[in-house]
Write a structure and sequence with these properties.
- The protein has helices at about 60-70, 80-85, 235-240, 340-350; strands at about 35, 125-130, 135-145, 145-150, 170, 180, 185, 190-195, 215-220, 230, 245-250, 265-275, 285-290, 305-310, 310-320, 330-335, 360-370, 370-375, 390, 400, 405-410, 420-425, 430-435, 440, 445-450, 460-465, 470-480, 485-490, 495-500, 505, 510-515, 515-520, 530.
- By secondary structure, the chain is mostly beta strands.
- The longest helix has 11 residues, at about 60-70.
């Protein structure tokens, strides 16, 4: 497969995902699975791509874009010129171009040569041996028996169909390997049971295709230490906003001039942009900028992108492609695992593991005095796998955990902004939703009406609108000075009480009483007059 320039990425993603310094970003050349012949054979050209099948993009994309927009900050990006100049496709033959025309002072690409990552438990090499040739990709160890990789690593370039699972070898995570005529030295006994890609995935030659993400199910585990869980889309938005470096691991070339690979290497690259419509993908693509010449090369495809937060390694997604050159600008592109939750769940079901619940629905929040209460509805999908919910602050720290659909915790008078609530299964997997800013609980003004009566003191009927709060114990109707004139049971309907008042003008307030205290008193009702 020959190296060739790649056309720029179309700029159709949501305007609210744009940055303060708008500019184009060329499509990443795919750092393909490293295909090297064991004998001098001619690589057949790829079969022409099939016509794209129409498909409906997930309705979750609108929510994902909204979450990302919530965390947006002004992040500088490369201009079209600099981005395009950095996107020559990575070679996948035995002799990648070393770009001898570069100036002597130009940095050479060195992802993953930025650091020797030998011994890491989070990445393995996924090697397919087919006849006289072999292909090398990387894969993140999501579960002992489930790997995350790139779709082009498990699809045959000549037929467009899946590579025979029996042709794959899985290397001991974080260790060196050697390919010989007898097989792969350093491989585990684990064998691939099934590879899963989206239904309409199609290769694009050496270009990064849409939906370039795959899950690989094994017949036995490859290690006891794995990623804690998939990162949520809310966490992606926060990391984008905070410019959090996102680590990458892979078994790729150290540089175009060093077309060998045998150990994993690691680096951390900042996120540059999130694309919600990269080549009509069903999920999210993440684009990173190069840093100090670090980029992805052949063999890095499928490697994990992750962040360690609160001592937990969170798997964000994969490496789908890179430039493998030393030019500045946009570099590594990949896809996020949680935005392909349905595909991930298909892999989990095959492996006999619990499915990932979707995000909690209809999340609401309110504050009473110094306590914040958050409540929600159960996830729409895989709700039967939920074991608990966590409410987290902007740093990912736990504010409260519960098996119910409401949670209260002290936050002081100022409350907490930027919270999320996450449903999760027995393995800690689950998506999150944003929590709206918790305002102080404030009932609407009650309504009052003077009723007919023969006595001098006329009865006044006072009606109260229920507050949107899960734990009201009583409603207190008061005078403007705060004297309680009646109490209303929140379980009755309608919410009303009757009081007799002397002739004159009268107005009322209402307070919602909770176990955490009283709400802010409502505005005063419209005045009513008791005639003499």
């Amino acid at each position: 497969m020959q190296s060739r320039p790649l056309q720029p990425v179309r700029q159709g993603h949501l305007d609210r995902l744009r940055r303060a310094h708008p500019g184009g970003a060329g499509a990443r050349a795919r750092g393909t699975a490293l295909h090297v012949s064991l004998a001098r054979t001619t690589t057949p050209p790829p079969t022409p791509g099939r016509a794209a099948q129409p498909h409906t993009r997930s309705r979750a994309i609108a929510f994902i874009a909204a979450i990302t927009a919530f965390w947006l900050a002004a992040i500088p990006i490369a201009t079209s010129a600099s981005a395009t100049s950095a996107t020559t496709a990575t070679g996948s033959t035995t002799s990648p171009s070393n770009n001898s025309s570069r100036t002597a002072g130009e940095r050479q690409p060195r992802l993953m040569a930025a650091g020797d990552a030998s011994g890491t438990p989070f990445v393995t090499a996924l090697i397919s041996v087919r006849g006289n040739s072999y292909g090398i990709c990387s894969a993140g160890v999501w579960k002992p028996t489930v790997l995350l990789t790139a779709a082009h690593c498990v699809i045959d370039e000549t037929t467009g169909g899946p590579i025979d699972p029996s042709s794959f070898f899985v290397v001991n995570p974080g260790t060196a390997f050697r390919i010989t005529s007898g097989g792969v030295q350093g491989a585990t006994p684990a064998r691939v049971v099934q590879t899963l890609v989206t239904d309409d995935f199609q290769l694009r030659g050496t270009d990064v295709p849409g939906d370039d993400i795959a899950f690989v199910v094994l017949d036995q585990g490859v290690g006891d230490v794995t990623f804690s869980r998939l990162a949520t889309t809310a966490e992606l938005g926060r990391w984008l906003n905070d410019r959090t470096p996102v680590s990458a691991l892979g078994y790729g070339f150290p540089s175009p001039s060093s077309p060998t690979t045998d150990i994993p290497r690691g680096a951390a690259l900042p996120l540059l942009r999130v694309l919600d419509d990269f080549r009509n993908s069903d999920g999210l693509a993440i684009l990173s900028s190069k840093q100090s010449g670090i980029d992805a090369c052949s063999g890095d495809s499928g490697g994990p992108r992750f962040v360690i937060e609160n001592d937990a390694p969170l798997l964000l997604g994969n490496i789908a492609g890179g430039s493998c050159n030393g030019f500045p600008g946009a570099g590594v592109i990949g896809f996020t695992g949680m935005s392909y939750r349905a595909l991930a769940n298909a892999a989990l079901a095959t492996a006999g593991l619990p499915l990932i619940p979707s995000r909690p629905q209809n999340v609401q929040s309110s504050r009473v005095e110094g306590t914040t209460t958050v409540w929600w509805d159960a996830p729409a999908d895989s709700h039967d796998t939920v074991v608990a919910y966590d409410v987290l602050d902007t740093s990912g720290a736990l504010l409260c955990s519960t098996a119910e659909t409401t949670c209260s915790f002290p936050t002081g008078s100022g409350g907490v902004d930027g919270m999320t609530v996450r449903a999760y299964n027995a393995q800690g997997e689950g998506d999150a939703n944003l929590v709206p800013t918790a305002e102080m609980l404030w009932p609407e003004a009650p309504t009052a009406k003077v009723l007919k009566a023969s006595s001098k003191k006329k009865p006044i009927r006072i009606r109260v609108s229920p507050v949107d709060y899960p734990a009201v114990t009583s409603y207190h109707v008061t005078t403007p000075k705060g004297k309680v004139v009646c109490r209303i049971d929140p379980t009755t309907s309608p919410l009303e009480c009757r009081v007799k008042r002397a002739p004159g003008k009268h107005r009322f307030r209402v307070e919602a009483i909770t176990e955490y205290g009283a709400s802010i008193p409502s505005p005063l009702s419209t005045p009513v007059r008791v005639a003499n």
